[in-house]
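Hey, quick one: can you model this chain's 3D structure?
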Amino acid sequence: MNVAPDASQFHYSVMAAALRYIDERRGTRPSLDEIAGAAGLGAAQFRRAFSQWVGVDTNDCLAHLLPDHARRLLDDRFTALGTAGGADRPALRWEAMAPDELARRGKGLTIGWGWFDSPFGEVLAMGTERGLCGMAFAAELGRDRTLADMRGRWPAAVFQQVPEAVAGWVSAAFARDGGTGRPIALQLIGGPFQIEVWEALLAVPSGHVITYSEIARRIGNPKAVRAVGTAVGRNPISWLVPCHRALRRDGDLGGYHWGLPLKRAMLVYEAARIDP
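Sure thing. Here's the predicted structure for all 276 residues.
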């Protein structure tokens, strides 16, 4: 990764504290001094920490942090699926698990896993010989619940703690220049409808958002908005299959399996990188 582990954990803890402070004061517009103070920093220190977190210099971190940020993304960065991704988006190559393999609930699969640092706290990464099959974030739920959640998706699989088996994919996933070398291989393990929804999410560029209803329309099932939301929530490869970019039509964040603070942070991070 491009940021030392201790630094990445510090920067995310600062941003998480700032976002909690802001969310607790909805309906107000706290100053940068107030937000920085809640995170234990001065305004200049906070601005510097924000720039180091996102990896680019930014003139107005406050604009990205305030509660109406998601609504403004929907107004300014709503995407029609198929729009080209941003320059910092890693190249991905994916394949779906065959239905008969899925029915076996992971039987016959060996899944390697490990914990890693990321811009959003600790991330649990899992992979098979075909590619990365899981990425989950522990900042809100903790390690034990996060690991149990992911293992429970494929209960018949054999799990081995071998971080070196997935480390290269994780490093590429968070590379700030979009990564180099071969594309990140993904193995999408889910049902046919879920795969359709996840494939649609893969078409949403970094720094942009889409609505659940637009995904439903684009996959040819406009009345299935609720089912789309469920499939988005069951996405096993968070961040790379960007379920955090799906919002409600009114600009509300909707849900996020690993906690809404993570979703807020991811949207802020991406928007600040493309529009500093």
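One thing worth noting: Residues 92-262 form a domain with the Arc Repressor Mutant, subunit A fold (CATH 1.10.10.10).
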